[in-house]
Amino acid sequence: ADIADAAFPPEDAISEQILEEQAKDQALEDAMDYLDEALGAKKIELEPYLEFIRELSKEQFFARATTMVTRKAQRERGRSQGVTF
Length: 85
Fold this sequence. Notes:
This protein is mostly helical. Helix content is 76%, strand content 0%. The two termini are 16 Å apart.
């Protein structure tokens, strides 16, 4: 991750926040996928599965909402990508 961070640095604080929220969104998606697999393999009961999914979904909602708000702010400042290649 350090090499990728150095190779593609964010242009500003808004871009950095977008990258962090997108990473959080993807990590939460991965966690929910693993929970789906665990439920299918009967390694977790339905009730705790639903509790975990509900909590992770809330976190993912806020990560996505934050990404949308920060992207809007980025566009208003005249930046479209936010990462320097």
